[in-house]
Structures are given as structure tokens and as C-alpha cells.
Design a protein that fits this description.
Number of helices: 5
Structural class: alpha+beta
Distance between the termini: 61 Å
Largest sheet: 2 strands, antiparallel
Low-confidence stretches: none
Strand content: 5-15%
Number of domains: 2
Radius of gyration: 24 Å
Length: 142
């Protein structure tokens, strides 16, 4: 049985040689497809269910087309365009994730002078904070 799965894996690797494979846009399409399936299960309206089912089918067909494509340069350019379009959102999500991870050890304040966000350690009491961007000082309880 172990040998069977090893041969299957080798066959799949040979099949995918020279094909584009997965990238960020394909991952986004996959998560969109999963979301459409979940919505289809939750929403009881028949017309909406068929619309979601059709959209899900189109998304998965496009994802498979991109994954199995041999035109690697074209798929790479599509992925770069997607990354460029979502750069702001991804940056905001990354910053918010960092703030959430730091919530037990740090507090974040905005400088009243320039609006720069300053991170200071928690538990220090009443402190004077100097903005690294504009040099303005302000006091806060941490």
C-alpha cells in the first residue's frame, strides 16, 4: 500500500512538471470557493443556492485552469497584479495581527503631532513618550 501511494505521488509530480501550480491568487480563489460552499449550505433560498453553486463552479474551474496552465509567465503576471491590488489590505491585516499578538505586552498610541503610531511596553505606569518621527513628547498611562 505504501508503494502504491509513492507511485501515485511520483505520477502527480511528473504530471505537474512545467505547469504553474499554486500561488497567492490561487489560494484566494480556493478560500473564495470554500466560502461560497459554506454560504450555499447556510442560505436556504433556492435561487441564491443555485447562484452560489454556479459561482463556486466557475471559481474552481478558473483555479484549476491557472494551476494546470503551462503559460507560466502569464500566470505570474496575473499573480503580481493580484498582489499589487491587495497590498494595502494585506499590510493592514499584517499590522492588526501584530497588534493583536502584542496586546499583552505592549500598548499603541498615536503621536498628537504627526499621527505616527508608537509602541510602548505595558506596566510602566505614567511615562513620557517621545515620537521617533517628529520628536514631540507626550505623556500617557501605560
Amino acid at each position: 500500500m505504501k508503494n502504491f501511494f509513492g507511485r501515485m505521488g511520483d505520477s502527480l509530480r511528473r504530471f505537474m512538471m512545467g505547469r504553474y501550480g499554486m500561488d497567492d491568487l490561487n489560494r484566494f480563489l480556493f478560500y473564495t470557493w470554500v466560502l461560497l460552499i459554506v454560504l450555499e449550505l447556510i442560505i436556504p433560498v433556492r435561487g441564491v443556492k443555485s447562484l452560489l453553486s454556479t459561482l463556486g463552479l466557475l471559481v474552481v474551474i478558473f483555479e484549476l485552469f491557472r494551476m494546470l496552465s503551462r503559460n507560466i509567465a502569464k500566470r505570474y503576471q496575473e499573480n503580481l497584479k493580484f498582489l499589487d491590488m491587495t497590498a494595502g489590505l494585506r499590510k493592514t491585516l499584517r499590522i492588526n495581527r501584530r497588534k493583536f499578538d502584542d496586546r499583552k505586552t505592549y500598548r499603541y498610541f498615536r503621536c498628537p503631532g504627526c499621527g505616527q503610531e508608537v509602541r510602548v511596553p505595558k506596566g510602566k505606569g505614567h511615562i513620557r513618550i517621545t515620537c521617533p518621527k517628529c520628536g514631540k513628547s507626550f505623556e500617557k498611562n501605560v
